Structures are given as structure tokens and as C-alpha cells.
């Protein structure tokens, strides 16, 4: 609705309200004007009363103040008269006059005579002696007052100030004439006569104000004293803020000077406010008593007019509603009935007679006629509901069937409510409408629903079967990986307390052997056997699944909070049960089980991590010998991740040729001349720098890339040897370590046959830690083939591994290297020396040269040489070095030899 449409409505409301309330408004204005005038007059009268009270109290104070100051001035006038009669006065005489003057109580604290601006005499003398002969005052107000007194030849009272004794004081300057001049302190007379001088008296201000009544504690006035008629500047006395409403000022006359004494009552605002509040409350009550009845009458007139308007509007709305109701009843085919309960007469409209197939000319009938029309099966229940509604005065609502004269069955819906008419007769009125079509439709829908439910049951059975198949392993009947993921998703780690759940990851040992040797049928039998054992050892709170070929997972939940103990017991029981043999086609089949266990802590981010943790623990169980269980820990996780990072870095470094040889020279035991080098594998790590085999060999073995590392070291070593030859350096014998993986590589011989051997010869060092005795035939064959290619064999780390003396006869190595663990103690241990001597003797008897490593000092070198070792290797002689460093060393040695030969 726009503003233009709102405006007439607003004007109409204003006009209607004005009709009833304008007399009230006029009376209200008159009452409030009268109240305001009365309040203003009362306020003025109150203030005037307070001013009169202030004047009564302020008059005596002014008189007392004038009297006190004038008495002090009179005292100074008398003293001046004495001074004029004693022209030869000196300090002694002045002090005597002062003592007489001060022999009685007074407000003066000291008196002095000022010549020009200098103090000539003063009393009391002793405390004020420094002032004699000095300027009488440095205060501008004192100087101004003294000048005014001399100029006008009258006394002047200066403005109070803080004295040298830290007290408030004010000075009175009184001019007078010397007769013949005054004698000074030295009793000498001034040269001039009739000289005008000033008699100065100092008044104690606080005492003056106290004796004048200004500080009287019983005085309920705030007072301010000004030393000028205009009240400019700060007052020389005040005891509180002044209230302008009741302010009164009086003039204090001090000769030619005029002071102003201003005063106002204390707490005048609070008292005035309290009086005004009481007065205004009474006036408000009076105004309310006048305006209340007037407003009440106006309100009654307005309500009467409003009620008349509403009644007219209701009549119009009632006619409109009646018309709409009749149209709605006709359109909806609803029949209306009314029953007079006392007489039993029932009134039906035309639609009701149509519903019951009654004579359209009969508008009234008996209640029993209605009962007879009801279907016999519904009659009793419908009648009871109807009678109960009448008895309890409650609403009546029901559904029933009727039978017409033609035998047609109709379904009706009825609703009624009990009420009393204008004559207080109890009646019930209601409506009926036919729901025959609705009932028929509901019956058809029910039949369709029944058929649909049967179809849905069949579909649900099929869905359950499909869902079961999608969530379970068809071979074992256990849950599959998908079902496991759904189950883990229901477990919230943050809601699980410590020790409430654990994951067991089970992997079968030797299962592949059974599959490969006995076939998949045997393997399937073993898997079902394992599933049966798992089902037997788990309870209803646990969850078991097969997630791969021979991998199973059990989620162990412990309501008692003992998941770790329960998981450990279950893991041990599973290992024992799975290890039990089962018959297969006349023979026993056995598999083992490795179990990794991970507890589920509340801090776990996702359940997927629990599976990963269990897998890490399973890997550790496999690594430590299989057929056992291991628990996951943060240390194990960190070690696994570190191994993973190392493994990834090893694979990258193999691609980037970051495994390089470092060469440690080998020396002739007698001449200490370099006769060979051992190529040692080093890892040029891109982040951690140069690393020894101890940092990567174990991981490399697990990756089966040790042979690749050996291959890379051999390739670079041969390249370095070729560089020596091309630069005409000494031909050195080269030793390269070879691993078991490399030794038993089927393609090794073919690759070795295609490479050129260095001029100084090539040896493969076999680690004695390799158990050659277990692979006697294969090792002998491989070593014979290597020897046939012109490559010599050395046994490394002799004395610390598996090889027996018999293996030396079978392998026939060219050299054997005594491990540094045997050579280091020979400086102090004679048994150790004898042991090395025995090894040397064995080597000599078999034609094997002896290399001693771990030569840490030259003393080691001498002892090992004396024991018969042929070749020495160790830090005392040379450390492992890069190819370039070795090349520089060989170049330097070669140059030194040439210089020695020509010299």
C-alpha cells in the first residue's frame, strides 16, 4: 500500500480521536499550565527564602571581618603616631615598642618599617634579622600595594600569600612621615628629614578568617571572599562551590578598599530538588485526579463508537461468510445436520437427504431413522461414539457405512460438536460427506501396495545376496577388503580409549610352495583351513577378513580394555592353529603364519593408518624369521620409513651413477711399495654426502640390488685402471668385492667375458661370511669359470665367517685377507700373533698369499711383516681415497721414481 493510500486512513483516525479527546486535551493544557506557573512561583519563593537566610548569617560575618581588619589597621595607625613622635628611634627602641604591642594576643605576626623598598626596622628581630637591609618583599602583590599606599597616602591591604614561614599572611602598608629622621641600626640618623616611610604589619590570614567566623564548622554556608569589587580572579578565601540560584554578595569596606563577600547555602540543590520533587508529586497527583475521569469518559465514548462500528462490520462479514459457506458446502457436497438432544428430533439439509437417499421433502426426522440406515456391522460402534460425545460434551468424529433402500452401501465420514443454543438447550451439530470413492481408491491402493511389497521383498532378498557377495570372500566366507574398509570406517579412533581395539595382519608362510607344487585346489583347502581357525578363535566382537591371496586381517575389540593382551594371545593361538597339518591326497600339508599387530590409539588420524601400521609390524615379523608375531611401535615405524627412504634413494642413485669406488692402496710388506688397490663401494648420497656400505648394504640386499652395485663399482674400477694405463702409470693389481647375488648371477660370466682386464690383474674378493659350504657345487663351478677368465679369487675377512680350512682347498684362492679384528690386538697379544702366524703358515703351505688389513701403526706393519704377511693394507699406510686422489698419488710416485732414477 502506498503513502497516498495510507494518508486518508491516518486522517480518518486523527479525526475520530479528535472527536472524543479534544476536550480532554484542552483541560490537560490548562492543568499543566497552572501546575507550571505554581511550580515556578514556589521555586522563586524558596530561593528568596534561602537568600534571606543567607543574608541573616552573612551580615555578622561581614561586620566581624571589617572590625578585625580595621582594629589591626588602627593598631598600626597608633604605632605610626608613636613613630612620628620619636624621630631618633633605633632598632632597640623599635623592638621595645614591639614587645609592648605584642604583649597581648593579636593577629599581627610582625611589624616593620620600610624605607623606599628596604626594610629598616623589624620586630620580632631575631627570626627576621636577615630581612633587615634587604628588599621588603619579592611578591608582586606586596610591591603593588606598597606603591599604592605611598601614592595615595593611605593604608592598603595586600592580597594574602604564603610567607617565608610557610604560612598564609597578608600585609597592611601604612604610610607616615619621620619628624627629624629615624636612626638606623647603628643609631645614625638619615640625612634627610620629613621622609615618607611605610609601616608594614603582617596579619596571620587563617587566624583572621577564623576569628571573623568564616571557618565556623556550624555555618551551613559556602563562602568566597574576593579582594576586588568585580570578583575577578581567584578568591582569597572559599570553603566550597557557590550556587548561583541563592547567591548573595555583600561589600566589605576597608578604608579606600572594598572586598566582596559572596555566600550561598550548602546543599541548596539537594534541598531544592527534594522540596520540588514533593511539590511536583502532589501537583501531579492533583492533575491526575482531574484528568483521569475526563480521560476515562472519553475512552468509554470511543469504545462505544468502536463497538458499534465493529458490530456493523461483523454483520457484513457474517453475511459474506454465510454466502461463502453455502457455496463451499454445495461445492464439496457436505451435508449439515443438527440434533435436539432432549427431543431426539434430527434436522437434515437437502445434501444430507441426498447422502442417505431420503425423501427430499422431509427436512426433519427421528434419530432412530438415522440409526436404522447404518450398516449392521458399524451400528453399535457408531452409536456408542455418538452417545459418548453427547454424554462427555466432546467432539464427535467417526467413519461408518450406510445401506440405502436399494441396498447400495455407502461410506460416510461424520463430524459433530455439542453446544447450547440461545435458550440453553443442548444440541449437537455436525456434517456428513461421502468417502465412498476414497475408500474404493484406498482398497485399490492397498492391493497395489501388497503386490509392490511382495516385489520389494524379492528385490531386497536379491540385494542382500548381492551385497553379501560384494562384501564377502566366496572361498572362505570371511569378509573381503571392501567390507573391512566399511567396518573400519565405523570405528572412530578418537572415541576409542587406549587398549580397546587392535588390528592383526596375518600372512601365510610357505603358501606359495603349496600352490606351486600341489596346485590351487590344495591352496584353496589351506585357505579354508586358515579361515576356519580364525573363525574358531574370534568372538562376536571381533571382525575377520581375507584381503588378498594369503593375507588375512582380524580387528580385535576388547570391551575390557585389554586389547594388547587379547591380540597377543589371539596371534599366538592363530600361529599355533595354522601350523597344524591338514591331509591332502594322502600327504600332510603345513603352512606357517606371520602376524603383525597394531593397536588403535585415540590419536590415530584414520583407520587406514592402523592397517599400514599392522603391515609394518608384519614386515618386521617376516624379516625376523617368519612364523612369529610382532607389535607395531613408533620406533619400528620410523625404522621402516627410514628403510623406505634409503631404498628409494638407493634406486635413484643407481640410475644416477652415485655409487662410486674408493681405492685403498695395498703395499708390499718388505718394500712398502704400492702394488695394488682394493676398490671399496661408497655411496655419494645427494643429501648426506659420502656413505660407507654399513649405511646401505642391508637395505640393498633386501632390494636385491647388491649385484647392481657390484656391477657399477667394477665398471668404474676398470675405467680407472684404463686411465692409469693411458697415462703410463704403474700397473696395479685391482681387487673388487663380489657379493653372493653377483656370484650366482646367471649372466655374470657372459658380461665378464666381454670386458678387458687391467694390466696389473683383477681379483674378486669373496666375503668369508658367505656360507660357501652350503653351495659347494654352485660356488666351485662359478669360481672355476671366473678363474678361467683370468680373474683371481681372494677370500676377504678371513677368520670371521663360515669358511673352513677345507673350503680353501676347494676354492683355491690366490690370496686371503686377514680381518682387522685379528690384526689390531697383536701389539699386546702374543696368542693373537701366534694365530696370525698359523694362518700365514697355512697360506704358505697352500701357495696362498696373505694380505693383512687393519694396519693402524707402523709397529703393526713391522710385526705383520715379520710374521710372514706378503701384503699390508691399513690407515697407517694409506686411507681409502677417490679415483682422482689415487691418480694424483700414482702420478706423484711415478714422477718421484723417475727423478730418483735419473739422479
UniProtKB/TrEMBL annotation:
Chain segments annotated as coiled-coil in the UniProt record: 297-331
Alphabetical keyword list: Coiled coil, Membrane, Transmembrane, Transmembrane helix
Keyword match RNA-binding: no
Domain spans labelled GGDEF: 499-634
CDD domains per UniProt: EAL (cd01948), GGDEF (cd01949), PAS (cd00130)
Cited InterPro entries: Biofilm_reg_signaling, CHASE_dom, EAL_dom, EAL_sf, GGDEF_dom, Nucleotide_cyclase, PAS, PAS-like_dom_sf
Transmembrane segments: 20-38, 281-298
Record-annotated EAL domain positions: 643-894
Recorded GO MF terms: catalytic activity
Protein's name in the database: EAL domain-containing protein
Taxonomic path: Bacteria, Pseudomonadati, Pseudomonadota, Alphaproteobacteria, Hyphomicrobiales
Amino acid at each position: 500500500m502506498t503513502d497516498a493510500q495510507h494518508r486518508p486512513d491516518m486522517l480518518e483516525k486523527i479525526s475520530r480521536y479528535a472527536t472524543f479527546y479534544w476536550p480532554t486535551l484542552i483541560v490537560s493544557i490548562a492543568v499543566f499550565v497552572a501546575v507550571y506557573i505554581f511550580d515556578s512561583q514556589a521555586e522563586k519563593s524558596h530561593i528568596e527564602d534561602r537568600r534571606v537566610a543567607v543574608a541573616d548569617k552573612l551580615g555578622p560575618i561581614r561586620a566581624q571581618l571589617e572590625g578585625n581588619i580595621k582594629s589591626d589597621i588602627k593598631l598600626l595607625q597608633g604605632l605610626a603616631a608613636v613613630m612620628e613622635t620619636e624621630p631618633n628611634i633605633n632598632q632597640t627602641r623599635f623592638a621595645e615598642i614591639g614587645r609592648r604591642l605584642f604583649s597581648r594576643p593579636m593577629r599581627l605576626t610582625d611589624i616593620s618599617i620600610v624605607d623606599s623598598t628596604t626594610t629598616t626596622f623589624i620586630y620580632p628581630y631575631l627570626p627576621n634579622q636577615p630581612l633587615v637591609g634587604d628588599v621588603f618583599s619579592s611578591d608582586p602583590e606586596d610591591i603593588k600595594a606598597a606603591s599604592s599606599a605611598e601614592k595615595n597616602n593611605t593604608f592598603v591591604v595586600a592580597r594574602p600569600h604564603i610567607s617565608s614561614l610557610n604560612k598564609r599572611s597578608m600585609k597592611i602598608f601604612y604610610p607616615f612621615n619621620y619628624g627629624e629622621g629615624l636612626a638606623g641600626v647603628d643609631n645614625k640618623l638619615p640625612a634627610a628629614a620629613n621622609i615618607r616611610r611605610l609601616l608594614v604589619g603582617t596579619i596571620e590570614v587563617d587566624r583572621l578568617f577564623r576569628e571573623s567566623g568564616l571557618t565556623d564548622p556550624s555555618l551551613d554556608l559556602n563562602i568566597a571572599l574576593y579582594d576586588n569589587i568585580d570578583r575577578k580572579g581567584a578568591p582569597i578565601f572559599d570553603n566550597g562551590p557557590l550556587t548561583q540560584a541563592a547567591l548573595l554578595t555583600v561589600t566589605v569596606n576597608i578604608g579606600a578598599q572594598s572586598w566582596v563577600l559572596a555566600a550561598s547555602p550548602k546543599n541548596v540543590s539537594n534541598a531544592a530538588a527534594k522540596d520540588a520533587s514533593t511539590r511536583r508529586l502532589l501537583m501531579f497527583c492533583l492533575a491526575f485526579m482531574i484528568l483521569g475521569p475526563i480521560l476515562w469518559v472519553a475512552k468509554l465514548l470511543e469504545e462505544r463508537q468502536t463497538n458499534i462500528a465493529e458490530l456493523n462490520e461483523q454483520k457484513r462479514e457474517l453475511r459474506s461468510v454465510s454466502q461463502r459457506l453455502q457455496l463451499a458446502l454445495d461445492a464439496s457436497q457436505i451435508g449439515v445436520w443438527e440434533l435436539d438432544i432432549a427431543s431426539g428430533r434430527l434436522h437434515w439439509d437437502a445434501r444430507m437427504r441426498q447422502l442417505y437417499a431420503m425423501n427430499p421433502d422431509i427436512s426433519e426426522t427421528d434419530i432412530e431413522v438415522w440409526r436404522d440406515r447404518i450398516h449392521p456391522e458399524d451400528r453399535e460402534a457408531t452409536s456408542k461414539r455418538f452417545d459418548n460425545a453427547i454424554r462427555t460434551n466432546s467432539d464427535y468424529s467417526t467413519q461408518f457405512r450406510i445401506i440405502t433402500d436399494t441396498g447400495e452401501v455407502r461410506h460416510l465420514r461424520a463430524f459433530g460438536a455439542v453446544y447450547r443454543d440461545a435458550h440453553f438447550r443442548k444440541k449437537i451439530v455436525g456434517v456428513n460427506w461421502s468417502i465412498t470413492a476414497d475408500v474404493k481408491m484406498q482398497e485399490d491402493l492397498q492391493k497395489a501396495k501388497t503386490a509392490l511389497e511382495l516385489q520389494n521383498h524379492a528385490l531386497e532378498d536379491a540385494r542382500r545376496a548381492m551385497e553379501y557377495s560384494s562384501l564377502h570372500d566366496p572361498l572362505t566366507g570371511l569378509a573381503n577388503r571392501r567390507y573391512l574398509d566399511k567396518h573400519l570406517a565405523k570405528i572412530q579412533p578418537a572415541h576409542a580409549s587406549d587398549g580397546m581395539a587392535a588390528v592383526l595382519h596375518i600372512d601365510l608362510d610357505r603358501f606359495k610352495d603349496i600352490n606351486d607344487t600341489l596346485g590351487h585346489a590344495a591352496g584353496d583347502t589351506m585357505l579354508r583351513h586358515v579361515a576356519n581357525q580364525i573363525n574358531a578363535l574370534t568372538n562376536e566382537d571381533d571382525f575377520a577378513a581375507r584381503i588378498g591371496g594369503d593375507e588375512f586381517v582380524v580387528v580385535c575389540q576388547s570391551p575390557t580394555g585389554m586389547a594388547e593382551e587379547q591380540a597377543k594371545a589371539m596371534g599366538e593361538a592363530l600361529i599355533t592353529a595354522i601350523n597344524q597339518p591338514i591331509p591332502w591326497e594322502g600327504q600332510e600339508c603345513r603352512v606357517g603364519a606371520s602376524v603383525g599387530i597394531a593397536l588403535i590409539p585415540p590419536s590415530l588420524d584414520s583407520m587406514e593408518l592402523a592397517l599400514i601400521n599392522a603391515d609394518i609390524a608384519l614386515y618386521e615379523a617376516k624379516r625376523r624369521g617368519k612364523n612369529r608375531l610382532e607389535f607395531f611401535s613408533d620406533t619400528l615405524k620410523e625404522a621402516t620409513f627410514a628403510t623406505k627412504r634409503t631404498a628409494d634413494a638407493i634406486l635413484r642413485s643407481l640410475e644416477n651413477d652415485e655409487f662410486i669406488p674408493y681405492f685403498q692402496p695395498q703395499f708390499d710388506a718388505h718394500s712398502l711399495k704400492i702394488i695394488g688397490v682394493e676398490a671399496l663401494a661408497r655411496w655419494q648420497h645427494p643429501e648426506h654426502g659420502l656413505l660407507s656400505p654399513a649405511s646401505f648394504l642391508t637395505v640393498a640386499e633386501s632390494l636385491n640390488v647388491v649385484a647392481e652395485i657390484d656391477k657399477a663399482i667394477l665398471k668404474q674400477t676398470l675405467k680407472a685402471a684404463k686411465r692409469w694405463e693411458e697415462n703410463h702409470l704403474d700397473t696395479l693389481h685391482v681387487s673388487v668385492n663380489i657379493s653372493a647375488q653377483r656370484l650366482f648371477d646367471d649372466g655374470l660370466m657372459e658380461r665378464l667375458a666381454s670386458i678387458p682386464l687391467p694390466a696389473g690383474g683383477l681379483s674378486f674378493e669373496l666375503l668369508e661370511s658367505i656360507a660357501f659350504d652350503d653351495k659347494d657345487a654352485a660356488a666351485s663351478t662359478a669360481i672355476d669359470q671366473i678363474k678361467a677368465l683370468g680373474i683371481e679369487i681372494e677370500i676377504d675377512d678371513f677368520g670371521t665367517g663360515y669358511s673352513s680350512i677345507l673350503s680353501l682347498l676347494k676354492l683355491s684362492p690366490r690370496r686371503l685377507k686377514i680381518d682387522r679384528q685379528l690384526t689390531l690386538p697383536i701389539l699386546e697379544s702374543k696368542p693373537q700373533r701366534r694365530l696370525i702366524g698359523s694362518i700365514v703358515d697355512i697360506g704358505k703351505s697352500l701357495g696362498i698369499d696373505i694380505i693383512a688389513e687393519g694396519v693402524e701403526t707402523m709397529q703393526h706393519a713391522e710385526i705383520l711383516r715379520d710374521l710372514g704377511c706378503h701384503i699390508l693394507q691399513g690407515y697407517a699406510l694409506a686411507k681409502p681415497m677417490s679415483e682422482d686422489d689415487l691418480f694424483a698419488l700414482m702420478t706423484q710416485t711415478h714422477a718421484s721414481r723417475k727423478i730418483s732414477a735419473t739422479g
